Amino acid sequence: MERAMLGVYLRDQIRNEEIRRRTGVTDIAQRVTKLKWKWAGHIARRTDGRWGSKVLEWRPCNANSLQAIFVQQWTSIG
């Protein structure tokens, strides 16, 4: 759609970044990624003890035995 706005064709071999610079439209995928990381940082900085922070910091108490179980399951499949 941006190419149509500028009258640019694929055969002109103009990069998408250049087209976005010309139109001033932001890339939605980059915007979503930036917002997700911003939100994750917000959750990580909270100190009020809500479940979001607890989930980010959670570690299973028997992680080594769980890892061994998963390895055994995958090796028995192959």
Automatic annotation (TrEMBL):
<protein>
    <submittedName>
        <fullName>Jg5212 protein</fullName>
    </submittedName>
</protein>
